[in-house]
Amino acid sequence: MGTGGPLEATYTLVGPIDAGTWHLVGDGIVIEEVDVLFEVLSRRGTQDQAIASWLHHFTPPASGFDAVPFDASATAAAVPAQSGDLLVFRYSVVAGATRPMAWIPNGDGANAHGRIPSIQLPP
Question: Model confidence over 49-65: pLDDT tens digits?
Fold first, then answer.
């Protein structure tokens, strides 16, 4: 993913989420140096509420197309979601990219020597 609009994955919630620590796995295939913003949001209708975010600078590996690892945690307040609200995992390139696919989520998991991007909610 290069410069341009963000990409999102959504999940329909059944109720509120407790306060606590969120964990992100953001491994990606990196073609050129790039800054990627990862966000977790709660969406009700057209209104988004920020829950947690991470900004990371990626540098391409010397080994070609191996995944570049990234994981981090963030503490967030409780999310007063209602049944039917969406949990949104959004990622976007915010700086450094000159190519359309400067950073690609690692969809190949261990086959690319990395992990598939994911978020873990508070226990």
Answer: 999 999 999 999 988 78
